[in-house]
Design brief:
With 356 residues, the protein is α+β, with helices and mostly antiparallel strands. It has helices spanning 3-12, 47-51, 60-64, 67-81, 112-125, 182-185, 187-205, 223-237, 265-278, 297-323, and strands at residues 85-89, 92-93, 128-135, 141-147, 152-154, 160-162, 165-166, 172-176, 210-215, 251-256, 334-337. The longest helix has 27 residues, at 297-323. 28% of the residues are buried.
Amino acid sequence: MGFRSQMKLAAAGATVARGELLPFPRKTTAISSPWADSSNLVPMLVAKDVFGVDSAAVSRLEALKVPVIAKGRALLHSLIASNPLVALNAEGKLPDEKQPTWLYRSDTGVSPYQRTCAILDDHLFEWASLLAVSRGAKGDILDAVHVPFERWSVNEHNAIMVDGELARDDQVLLIPGPGPGLLTIADEAIRAARATEQAWVSRVRNPFPAMVLQETADYGMNQDEAKPYVEAVAKARRNPDSAVMFIPYTMSLTAHNADKTDLFENGRNAQRLDFANYMNMPASVLEGSLSTASLTYSTQDGKYNEVFAFTIPYWTQPLEQALSMDNVVPRGQRIRFDLTNLRPDQASPTGAAEQD
């Protein structure tokens, strides 16, 4: 199987036999996790071994059902992945004809934009991302494709494995993220957010408060005799257009929490603030408010400056630094996002002219 076909399988996340993704000679260099204790390399790089929790307990799909996480992910894709990666040297951006072709094209049918989105997803939810690369005769990268997170792992010797086979150093690029990922550090918050959403949905489906039917006199009514009354009230509550009930003289109805109309608004807003902190984003850009103040130019410009100064570098720098290593570009070159489309009024934030 040719490398192009192998990379297509990696990009599609297809289920293939062991060893089909890449040829894996048994020689590989051990890699140390940035989240592991540097004095002990025995613990695995996977987050659950470092932090004592099972990161698979909360899935990405479950996390994306939390609105604020979906909004944060969309912002990362639109603000970062939509911008091209470019190569620079001490004099600045390389001419177009000298730009590495894999930065702006691919032979796999998976665009560089989709590749960057997949890397950002890995960094958002997990601790690192992995690329499979093909190289020319001189060792320069010709193409690169994202390897789905579930298809690679780190063995007991801290060596990277893809589909159960050891990966050779020159055929994979490990890109550590800025943190352990939401599925590790925010798993409880995700579960709480999902529980809050479910409670909110339940309240919307049953907008009437909890009700208690109670006998006003002791007539010795048993469970079977009380059941028709309970079912009649429950049926009426589920139909708000005709929620008219008849209560016998010997029975009273008490409504509990009838004055609560916020539908968990405070709790849901607090969760937005929590996840904003997890994702290093201003809470203001994740809010759902459409108030006049939030739509003024000055307010929006302030939000944009804060995102550009703090949020974007937090997510771009791990990728840029990993792609600027000597096993990716020649010494003296570096890879940066060209963010001039985001801030056309300022110089391109591709970093100062320097030798890496």
